[in-house]
Amino acid sequence: MSFAERLYMLRTGKGISQKELADTLGVAQSSINYWEKGQRDPSISIVEKIADYFGISVDEMIGWNPRKTVGQNLATMKIQTLAAHLEGDEFTEEELEEIRKFAEFIKSKRKDND
């Protein structure tokens, strides 16, 4: 299930409108619409807020399942390499962690489409 499908399912399952969810998250209603249609993706910080709102983990929200991940060690090494390249750009540890999470999120979308 894609992030877009999961968001729609969670929102409608809870019986709330796009506007209500948007107000709760502090975003425009059009953002919810774009996300549910798979036309845009939220930032990792918004994904965290959505997951918190629905009482699930970010992993569940983006559909990441470590048991299904092939080559997880290689993926982790690639993320660490990416972070190492970015460290010279004076990112904080929190920003580097957000970059790592976002990279995993992007990869999970690719797997959903396969």
Domain count: the total is 2
End-to-end C-alpha gap: 11 Å
CATH topology annotation of the largest domain: 434 Repressor (Amino-terminal Domain)
How many helices in DSSP terms? 7
CATH architecture annotation of the largest domain: Orthogonal Bundle
The low-confidence runs, each spanning 5 or more residues with pLDDT under 50, are: 69-74
Give the class from helix and strand content and strand pairing: mainly alpha
Radius of gyration, rounded? Answer: 15 Å
Quaternary structure type: single chain
Major sheet size, sense and barrel closure: none
Which band does the percent of strand residues land in?
Answer: under 5%
What is the CATH level 1 assignment of the largest domain?
Answer: Mainly Alpha
Helix content: over 70%
The 3D shape can be described as: globular
Q: Tell me, rounded to a whole number, the average pLDDT.
A: 79
CATH superfamily of the largest domain: lambda repressor-like DNA-binding domains
By DSSP, the count of extended strands is: 0
Listing every helix as H and every strand as E from the N terminus to the C terminus, the arrangement reads HHHHHHH
Q: Could you characterize the architecture of this molecule?
A:
- With 114 residues, the protein is mainly α.
- It has 2 domains: 3-57, lambda repressor-like DNA-binding domains (434 Repressor (Amino-terminal Domain)); 66-113.
- It contains 7 helices and no strands.
- It has helices spanning 3-13, 18-25, 29-37, 44-54, 58-62, 72-87, 93-113.
- The longest helix has 21 residues, at 93-113.
- The protein is globular, with a radius of gyration of 15 Å.
- The N and C termini lie close together (11 Å).
- Mean pLDDT is 79; it is low at 69-74.
